[in-house]
Please model this.
Amino acid sequence: MLSIISTATVLLLGLTQVQEALAFIECSVLNYGAVADNKTDLGPALTRAWEECVIPQVTTTVATDVLLYVPAGDYLLASTVTFDHAANWNLHIAGDIFLPFNPSLTGTMLTFENCENILLNGPGAIYGNGYRYRPGGDLSLYPSRPRLIRFQNCNNCEITAVTLYDAPMFHVTVIGNNNEAHDMSIIASHIGETDGFDMSGNNNYVHDVTVENGDECVTVKTPTNGFVAERITCRYTAGCNIGSFGSGTAGVDVQNVYYSDVTISNSDAGVMIKSYPNCAGTVKNITYTGFTLSAAAYPIYISAFWEGGTTDTGTLEVSNVLFENFQGTGTPTRPAVLLDCNKATPCKDISFSDISLSNTKANSFTNACGSGLSDLSGC
Ligand SMILES: *[C@@H]1O[C@H](CO)[C@@H](O)[C@H](O)[C@H]1NC(C)=O
Ligand SMILES: *[C@@H]1O[C@H](CO)[C@@H](O)[C@H](O)[C@H]1NC(C)=O
Model:
């Protein structure tokens, strides 16, 4: 079953009258088994509507021509859904989707895999009920609790206007090229393993988003070549970071990253590049500009010893990083700028301009060279 909605718009251009017809196909989950009763599992209905209605009717590369539609109402998403080889359609969530508490629920609730030109939009919301999976803040009780949304090997996709609340684990992971997330909020408990946006691939773009959680705000993972984040607000997060790269990660490759116009408050960090002393690879040409911080521990921190490891033989090259126009406050027990790099491979060409951070300890530099701060030696 499907419904076709047409609207005709009439444009008057001088004396010329142009008629333009817009049509899109709407595949409502209500026609494929969903019930907006907050009890019936939405998962199978999403899959059926996609297979039986969306796939057969995608004929153009305009994503908004075919909608997998979740109308207004309350739905329970009790099982994971994977859209593999999805292309050229729009998951349009107008309703509110709730996750149950189910200790055996694991994986990722909504996965797009090998996908191309998918629009995921609101105005609806997904409520993860994450607090139930970590009662009293205990992250160890249900270590395989589910993540929320993942775009894996996906290009030219867009996520917008949907609000995500309190996922049991990470909220949005994007792996692929030319993807965009914008004009949306993620709001979770102030606790670890609640990452907002974890991005990797080439030329991804995140802008005009707000993240409140207790972990990564908008963060770059390897490999990345070309990433822009603009107009980002982070509350109670762990900051806008690069990494972390796990112990022994070889072949780290992150370059051409640009963050601008970021507001960070009550945070574990402002910006960090975090790795282990045995990582290998390259992080280069990184710009962080226009940061307003309040009560951010570690406002600017490059750490080759994130979460331990002391064997100082790493070959991760961190170079050509610019921190520009940082204003606001840190915390009295941590340095405003802390560079703690490998002896074997010092951080190079780390530059600072217009850094004005108060309520912090003195800066500290180990195995790093650059310009723009007194006591930082030139390269
Ligand atoms: C829907 O169910 C979930 C859990 O099963 C619950 O947390 C949520 O409050 C319910 N939503 C509404 C609107 O009743
Ligand atoms: C550095 O990255 C910026 C994007 O932030 C890009 O415009 C510029 O071309 C890069 N520079 C080099 C030398 O690759």
About this structure: Residues 224 and 254 are 5 Å apart (CA to CA). The pocket of 2-acetamido-2-deoxy-beta-D-glucopyranose (ligand 1) is lined by residues 38, 74, 76, 98, 100, 129 (CB under 6 Å). The mean pLDDT is 94. The first strand starts at residue 3 and ends at 13.
